[in-house]
Design a protein that fits this description.
The chain has 339 residues and is of the alpha/beta class. It has 12 helices and 12 strands. Helices cover 47% and strands 15% of the residues. Helix 11 crosses helix 12.
């Protein structure tokens, strides 16, 4: 063996150089790839359909690495094409991955329409990166469902496929998108509204037409309605307006079926009584119900939004991000840091 090793060292110089080149090829390619990263200043255009742009989202974008954030308020779907083309044609094509569009506001379907309009406005190779998260709803909904999935699996050993989920406050952006994400995971989702069935009809229709999911609408304004709905649910989600008590302790604890309750409301009083701010699977005393609180959800939401903004800043190709991408990231965050 010693002789073989010695003879190997007498390999012709040309062959040794070829071997070294082959071994070094991955490092050379990596350096070339790094060298191709555009040096352009990361610019984010913030399209808000409201009269103002959210300071929360502006701060998140800057902390993630955007050097310039320009807010455009009162933006409508009709404005989107012209504004996007202004943004892409004013920079070389290779700067497209450093030109970002963030779509805010308070309307989930409008934000998705604007995202589609933005992509349709591209004139290859002129593109940009776009991220829709109106009112933080996509990242909040993604965080809530990801945590619910983890806690429910811990209680039952099962995923959400077939689980009966009641979503209170489902006419809002967080409630609607939570309903869609859960239904796409196979859950049997009931959307609950205190404003009656008419308020839910457009969302149920959109759920089927746009996302291929069946969402069951139900009225839940009266106390007896809420008790009945909770009693039939494996999981109760509350995404109602801040500072409004929706589910009382009596309604929750009387249910013999419910295993998980999650609430996104951090402003007192809580949306679900007995749910505490930092809960991440705590068992509510005297019940078998695991609680998920708003600040546990908020932690995953914050990290999810930050990760998606960083993806826009660091990607070498333009990206388009919506609630599906948010849920993928939130799920990874939850699974990589189990309770």
């Amino acid at each position: 063996m010693a002789m073989d090793n010695h003879l190997g060292s007498l390999q012709p110089a040309e062959e040794r150089l070829d071997d070294l080149a082959r071994r070094d090829e991955p490092r050379v390619m990596a350096r070339k790839k790094q060298a191709r990263k555009p040096a352009a200043t990361p610019i984010l255009h913030f399209f808000s359909t409201q009269a103002f742009a959210s300071p929360f989202d502006v701060n998140m974008a800057v902390d993630a690495g955007f050097k310039v954030v320009v807010t455009h308020t009162g933006v409508s779907l009709d404005h989107t094409t012209a504004l996007v083309q202004d943004a892409i044609f004013s920079r070389p094509p290779e700067y497209g991955c450093r030109t970002g569009l963030f779509i805010g506001g308070k309307d989930a379907l409008l934000a998705l329409d604007m995202l589609d309009a933005a992509k349709s406005a591209f004139v290859p190779p002129f593109k940009l990166s776009a991220f829709a998260d109106p009112g933080g709803s996509f990242t909040t909904a993604a965080a809530m469902v990801a945590l619910v999935e983890e806690v429910y699996r811990g209680r039952t050993g099962l995923g959400l496929d077939g689980a009966k989920i009641a979503v209170f406050g489902s006419t809002g952006v967080v409630g609607f998108i939570s309903s869609v994400i859960a239904a796409r995971l196979g859950a049997d989702v009931t959307m609950v509204s205190h404003m009656g069935l008419d308020a839910l009809k457009p969302l149920v229709k959109a759920g089927k037409a746009r996302f291929g999911v069946n969402l069951r609408p139900t009225a839940g304004a009266r106390a007896q309605d809420k008790s009945r709905i909770v009693a039939k649910a494996d999981i109760v989600l509350c995404a109602a307006a801040a500072g409004i008590r929706v589910i009382t302790s009596e309604q929750l604890t009387k249910s013999r079926k419910t295993l998980v309750a999650a609430d996104v409301n951090a402003v007192p009083p809580s949306g679900i009584e007995l749910v505490e701010l930092f809960d991440r699977g705590r068992t509510i005393k005297g019940t078998d119900i695991a609680s998920i609180g708003p600040l546990a959800i908020g932690d995953i939401k914050y990290k999810t939004q930050a990760a998606l903004f960083r993806k826009m800043v660091t990607s070498n190709e333009p990206v388009a991000l919506d609630f599906n991408d948010a849920f993928e990231v939130a799920r990874k965050l939850v699974r990589s840091n189990p309770k």
